[in-house]
Amino acid sequence: MFPIEIEDRLLNSIKSSQDLSNLYSNGITIDSFRNRKDIFKFIVNYYKQYTKIPDYNILKANFPDFNQYLVKNDEINYLIDELAGLDLRFKTTKILEQSVELLKTEPKAAIDLLVNKLLSLKKTNKLAKSITDKDAVLRLEKYLKKRAVVQSGKVLGLKTGFKLFDDDNVGWQEGNLIGIIGRLGVGKSWLLLYSSCISYLDGHRILFLSPEMTVDEVEDRWDVLMAALLQKISLNHTKLSSGGKIDTKQYKDFLEVVKSREDWMTIDTHDSGPFTVDSIQSLVNEFKPDLVAIDGLPLLKDVNKGSGIWENIKNISYGLKNIAMSNKIVILVTSQANRGTTDKGPEIENISYSDAIGQAADVLVMLSEKVDESDCRWIKIPKRRGGRVLNKRVCIEFDVDNGRVGGIVNKLRKIEEPLITEKGGG
């Protein structure tokens, strides 16, 4: 078939609002058409105005060169795939053409552009859909599965490492965007890494993106936290990162244990430039993680040129939320609190640059220093969609040098350890 015939046949297949919805849910939009954008736009606008799909005679009267075809039901999926493939080839060609001139002057930048843009084309635009009334009985099955998980003592979703979540048997849920907010130097990166380690130890795949720290810096911290969580040993971060004296046999034995898995990928932006929403989606397509941890929301790049910082953060925040939902994964991200933050810790209005992450996030974890105890931190949860919030501060252990993080510290300095299991569940 010629491309225009594929477009005509697909447009002829639209007989109802459900057919139109089917195209959208499979990633077909007006931008997918090369020859018949005007006809598809006419169909959409006609439906909006009259709540019905125009028949062929109406389309022919407005577009004399539009051809009529009898399309069989089993042909529709083929036509959708063909049009999507043609659209992909067209966009790929455009990207290659745009890179030709850049290759002449800045070859490295051209390669980065090619890699990021070509990988971004692989992302899916398909929408999750359900016939809410017809599929109602299926929801009972989903509920019974959740109930069985809770009754077995496991956590629904991904284990968080925070007792106030895990003790309720409800962890990070697929589609969640979680923001960790705090002032500069308070330890957001450590808390992000800690919660990611807990999910990893529960059997999940982790993609850790570091716009600021190098891979080596992240992995020194990973070793310290994981050694403490997995084998209850202290590697001491200060000594490990600076070449100080540690028990090398103990360290080697630990590394031999963890090398059996391939479920954690750490990426920095030392050479490749800032992460964008599209490049993050491409990495998700490649690695298939259950959780994406991003250490520094303000360090991500918004590709919409000309936008101010507030608009940039908004685009990025909602872009990340969309990735979490469309891929059914969890995304954890850190962001800054501003100088208006009091000793009681940041509130939602204290989020720097833009409160968009506060609006887009399903959960906000506010982190602040405990002035009189350097190995502790205050946390509170002012936002938790679908669960109880915690506006009263809770003190957690924060001895990051020795990898001891997350246990709740009571007034008697007794530490309740975070919940950890050896195998994945929930």
How would you characterize the overall build of this protein?
With about 425 residues, the protein is an alpha/beta fold. It has 2 domains: about 5-120, DNAb Helicase, Chain A; about 155-415, P-loop containing nucleotide triphosphate hydrolases (Rossmann fold, 3-Layer(aba) Sandwich), CATH 3.40.50. The protein is built from 15 helices and 10 strands. A 10-stranded mixed beta sheet has the order 3-2-4-5-1-6-7-8-9-10, with helices on both faces. β9 and β10 (about 415) form a beta hairpin. α6 (about 105-120) crosses α13 (about 275-285) and α13 (about 275-285) runs parallel beside α14 (about 310-325). The longest helix has 30 residues, at about 75-105. It is globular. The model is unreliable at about 420-425 (pLDDT under 50).
Largest sheet strand order: 3-2-4-5-1-6-7-8-9-10
CATH architecture name of the largest domain: 3-Layer(aba) Sandwich
Structural class: alpha/beta
Q: What overall geometry do the principal axes of the alpha carbons give?
A: globular
Distance from first to last alpha carbon: 48 Å
Q: Give the total of domains.
A: 2
The CATH superfamily of the largest domain is known as P-loop containing nucleotide triphosphate hydrolases
Q: What would you call the quaternary organization?
A: single chain
The proportion of strand residues reads 5-15%
Q: What is the count of helical runs?
A: 15
Helix and strand sequence: HHHHHHHHEHEHHHEHEHEHEEEEE
